């Protein structure tokens, strides 16, 4: 029996079903196109927003750089207007990155962490702009750098005291901004993103600590500047041509009064101003035994110790014994430090019309002065005149503050600029700023080894000296060996009798030879186990003792003209953990290069 034909309905259903299936196949493509188009549109919007954020932040950065210019010209209106514009730009950028597109993009693998980094950097920038900028603008407006110097020398402290009130608010903003950036892992960022946000991290890492330091030190600095009443300081100018452990012979001094920022040069003195046979301080006998008998009696010998607080106390005692007055601090620098200062202030004209520049000042003070001005009286007059002219130049305040701070930092690093204060909080500041020049008393912060030079010829020959240092360690033996190489390049002509060695005749050696007391100083708790040479070249220079807990041995050596000599010593370190190694020596006319063996790394903590 033939099968009945399929009903029309069934066929229609089948056919309809077939048609329907064919039509439904178009929908995924249509949906995909729609989704892609939607994503493209969203991506386009996000890209436009990202460009807007970038433009806002770049505009804000450019405006910020212009504020310094307006501060120098004292244009308060432009400072305020620029600050308002920066604030609005960062608000706009921050508002954009808070939107839903940025929230979604932050969750996309790989891309998300980069978007999140830009987002957090923008938020941190806004925090700085809103929290620190108003206070910063107020601070800069009140400082008026170009108007701070006062007639006669010094600075007006009133705007600085007013500016100090803004610092807590600024530092709080930096702390909040840094917290916002804490979760950003720069190692996971794409290079172009890291480059974009890196400048903000640099600002946080560099400016943040500086602002904290300013807030911390400013109250003490204001007191040092006479905000609470007149202060009297002694400035010492050390002469590296006649080496002393702390730098050089104190060739001249200046007495400076500072009253509410106003600076006045009150007096100038020299080695011949004070009595030379009056002991002014009395260190422990174990310390006095390290030095020649006249060390704590004569003005020119107080720098034989490498411990500048001892030097400062000696000058303060000498001043009190001689005048009845009290010093509020002693500040020391040498001609190399002066050369750094002249890089910022520009040259100084001497009384005879010559120019003292950063390039020639060291030679003119430490060599030329003795050839040009024979006799102590003429030399002292020249040094006093230079000191006076330097004082006037620096006190005028007509130089770039930031450049001066940079050069002072160089002098501090080279151990050429030191300060001592009798008040505990001010001395603590000097220590924290690495200006104290103090010997360590333990090995917690640093483990200090040192080789120092005291000229024993009474000469001005160390202008022609160059030195270098080398430090090696034996980890198993727990020892450190430190050596100092000394080169004598004294010429055979062109020197006066005053510059040549006076004591050399005693030892029957040429007057061009160095006669030097070499001080070997061990860390506290360590002992000196070996020296080379063991006894030196002259029995009358052999001494020993303890200073501030440092085992110290002294030998007297001769370094012949045009020859080089190396001295060294080995110390046995104490048990226990040791702070980072600190190697000290006498600041000389030139920089002393130092090499440290890699084997020393395991003995000492890292900085």
Give the integer mean of the pLDDT values.
83
> What structural class should be given to the helix and strand makeup?
alpha+beta
- Can you tell me the overall shape? globular
Please, how many helices?
16
Tell me what portion of residues adopts beta-strand conformation. 15-25%
Report how far the terminal alpha carbons are from each other: 105 Å
Strand order of the largest sheet: 3-2-1-4-7
What Rg, in angstroms, do the CA atoms define? 35 Å
Major pleated sheet:
5 strands, mixed
Give the helix proportion (percent range).
40-55%
What are the low-pLDDT stretches, counting only 5+ consecutive residues below 50?
A: 1-25, 29-36
Count the strands?
Answer: 17
Give me some keywords for this one:
alpha+beta, globular
Characterise the protein shown here:
This protein has 607 residues and is of the alpha+beta class. 44% of the residues lie in helices and 20% in strands. It is built from 16 helices and 17 strands. The protein has helices at 8-24, 26-73, 76-97, 100-105, 111-131, 133-143, 157-164, 167-181, 191-224, 285-288, 308-323, 335-345, 361-372, 376-395, 401-413, 424-432; strands at residues 231-244, 247-259, 262-270, 329-333, 348-349, 355-356, 418-420, 447-455, 465-474, 479-488, 514-521, 527-532, 543-547, 550-559, 564-572, 581-585, 594-596. A five-stranded mixed sheet has the order 3-2-1-4-7, sandwiched between helices. A hairpin with a 5-residue loop joins strand 5 and strand 6. Helix 5 runs parallel beside helix 9, helix 6 runs antiparallel to helix 7 and helix 12 (335-345) packs antiparallel against helix 15 (401-413). The radius of gyration is 35 Å and the shape is globular.
């Amino acid at each position: 029996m033939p099968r009945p034909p399929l009903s029309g309905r069934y066929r229609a259903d089948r056919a309809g079903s077939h048609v329907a299936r064919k039509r439904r196949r178009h929908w995924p493509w249509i949906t995909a196109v729609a989704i892609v188009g939607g994503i493209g549109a969203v991506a386009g919007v996000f890209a436009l927003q990202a460009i807007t954020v970038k433009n806002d932040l770049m505009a804000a950065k450019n405006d910020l750089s212009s504020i310094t210019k307006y501060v120098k010209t004292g244009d308060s209106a432009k400072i305020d207007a620029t600050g308002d514009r920066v604030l609005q730009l960062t608000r706009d950028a921050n508002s954009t990155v808070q939107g839903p597109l940025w929230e979604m993009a932050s969750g996309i693998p790989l891309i998300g962490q980069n978007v999140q980094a830009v987002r957090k950097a923008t938020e941190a920038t806004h925090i700085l702009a809103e929290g620190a900028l108003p206070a910063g603008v107020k601070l800069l407006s009140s400082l008026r750098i170009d108007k701070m110097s006062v007639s006669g020398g010094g600075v007006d402290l009133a705007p600085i005291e007013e500016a100090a009130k803004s610092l807590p608010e600024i530092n709080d903003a930096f702390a909040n901004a840094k917290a916002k950036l804490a979760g950003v892992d720069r190692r996971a960022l794409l290079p172009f993103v890291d480059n974009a946000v890196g400048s903000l991290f640099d600002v946080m890492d560099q400016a943040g600590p500086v602002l904290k330091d300013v807030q911390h030190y400013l109250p003490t600095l204001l007191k040092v500047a006479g905000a609470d009443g007149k202060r009297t300081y002694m400035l010492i100018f050390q002469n590296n041509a006649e080496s002393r452990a702390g730098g050089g012979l104190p060739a001249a001094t200046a007495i400076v009064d500072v009253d509410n920022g106003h600076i006045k040069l009150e007096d100038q003195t020299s080695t011949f101003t004070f009595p030379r046979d009056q002991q002014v301080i009395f260190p422990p006998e174990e310390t006095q035994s390290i030095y020649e008998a006249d060390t704590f009696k004569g003005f020119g010998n107080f720098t034989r110790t490498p411990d500048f607080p001892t030097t400062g106390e000696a000058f303060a005692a000498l001043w009190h014994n001689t005048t009845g007055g009290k010093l509020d601090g002693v500040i020391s620098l040498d001609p190399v430090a002066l050369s750094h200062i002249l890089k910022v202030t520009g040259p100084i004209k001497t009384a005879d019309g010559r120019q003292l520049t950063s390039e020639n000042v060291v030679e003119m003070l430490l060599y030329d002065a003795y050839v040009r001005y024979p006799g102590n009286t003429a030399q002292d007059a020249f040094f006093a005149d230079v000191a006076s002219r330097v004082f006037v130049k620096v006190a005028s305040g007509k130089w770039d503050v930031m450049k001066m701070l940079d050069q002072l930092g160089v002098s501090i690093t080279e151990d050429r600029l030191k300060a001592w204060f009798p008040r505990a909080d001010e001395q603590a500041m000097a220590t924290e700023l690495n200006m104290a020049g103090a010997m360590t008393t333990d090995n917690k912060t640093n483990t200090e080894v040192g080789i120092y030079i005291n000229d024993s010829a009474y000469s001005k020959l160390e202008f022609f000296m160059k030195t270098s240092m080398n430090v090696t360690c034996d980890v198993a033996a727990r020892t450190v060996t430190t050596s100092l190489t000394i080169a004598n390049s004294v010429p055979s002509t062109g020197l006066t009798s005053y510059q040549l060695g006076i004591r050399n005749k005693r030892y029957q050696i040429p007057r061009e030879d160095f006669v030097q007391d070499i001080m070997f100083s061990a860390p506290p708790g360590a002992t000196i186990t070996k020296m080379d040479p063991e006894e030196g070249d002259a029995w009358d220079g052999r001494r020993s003792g303890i200073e501030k807990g440092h085992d110290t041995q002294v030998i007297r050596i001769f370094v012949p003209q045009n020859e080089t000599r190396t001295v060294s010593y080995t110390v046995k370190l104490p048990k226990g953990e040791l702070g980072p190694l600190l190697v000290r020596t006498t600041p000389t006319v030139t920089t002393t290069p130092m090499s440290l063996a890699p084997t020393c790394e395991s003995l000492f903590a890292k900085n």
